[in-house]
Design brief:
11 helices, 271 residues, ABC transporter involved in vitamin B12 uptake, BtuC
Length: 271
């Protein structure tokens, strides 16, 4: 029994993946709750698609690593998308759809020109088992930064998600804080996409928060349940994929989070 439950701990790559999930899931929980509250479920998806453009630009400009180019482009992409979203000329889903499509198309075109597309296909599905100790430290620093931002600005973020007009009437700089939030999402998504994957990162951000929202009674329980569901999905998915060699970790985590979503949905309806 001990071998079944804890045999994976003997391998360094599994320990690194375990520590990474302990850091990533709280990050996703803090951001995911606000993303769901703001009706921005596909915002992070569009950002993920923009990563291909960031990689393409990094390759063409000759950067030694593609991640800085990804982060810089994602920040610009997020701010521009947010600016157009607030112009009220188009609905949020239309703006996100346009940016998502353009981000993918431009990224594929740039990578095709560079002849290196196959080299970066791993970004599509990610690999949490490949994370290194230095990258875990980067995640830890990022988590500390997001926690500080959360402690300082959460009440204002929450009020903006309820009513931007009321928030503005109380002297809150709505546009500035909204831009700060989307920049934080852009940085976290770009840092995590290498290990989570472009195709799955939006699901990991949204599903635990959406599941928690079904049964949460207040803001505190909403955040707590989102973290619990995220960590449960992540760690159980890691354990399951260790014992099943053909089961990729990312998809298993998303499927478990999806099961939690439907379970809490029916639990809410049966109350």
């Amino acid at each position: 029994m001990a071998e079944l439950l804890f045999g994976w701990w003997q391998y360094e790559f599994m320990r690194n993946a375990f520590l990474a999930l302990l850091l990533i899931m709280p990050l996703f929980a803090m951001l995911g709750t606000l993303i769901v509250n703001n009706g921005m479920a596909f915002f992070s998806d569009a950002l993920g698609h923009s990563s291909l453009t960031g990689v393409g630009l990094g390759v063409i400009l000759g950067f030694s690593g593609y991640k800085p180019a990804m982060i810089v482009f994602a920040i610009i992409f997020a701010l521009l998308m947010n600016r157009i979203r607030h112009s009220r000329l188009y609905s949020t889903d239309t703006v996100i759809g346009v940016f998502s499509a353009c981000g993918v198309a431009l990224g594929l075109l740039l990578l095709s020109f560079s002849g290196n597309f196959s080299r970066y296909q791993s970004l599509l599905i990610g690999d949490i088992l490949s994370i290194t100790k230095s990258e875990i430290i980067i995640l830890a620093v990022t988590l500390i930064g997001i926690i500080i931002m959360w402690l300082i600005f959460f009440n204002r973020f929450h009020l903006i998600s309820i009513s931007p007009a009321i928030a503005s009437s109380r002297g809150i700089k709505v546009n500035l804080l909204d831009n700060l939030f989307v920049v934080a999402v852009a940085v976290v998504v770009m840092l995590a996409i290498q290990w989570i994957g472009l195709l799955l990162i939006n699901a990991m951000l949204i599903l635990p928060a959406a599941a928690a929202r079904h049964i949460a009674r207040n803001t505190r329980s909403y955040l707590t349940l989102t973290m619990v569901f995220g960590l449960f999905s992540g760690l159980l998915g890691l354990w399951f994929s260790y014992h099943n060699a053909y089961a990729a970790t990312g998809p298993v985590i998303v499927l478990i989070a999806g099961i939690l979503y439907f379970a809490t949905f029916f639990l809410r309806d049966n109350k």
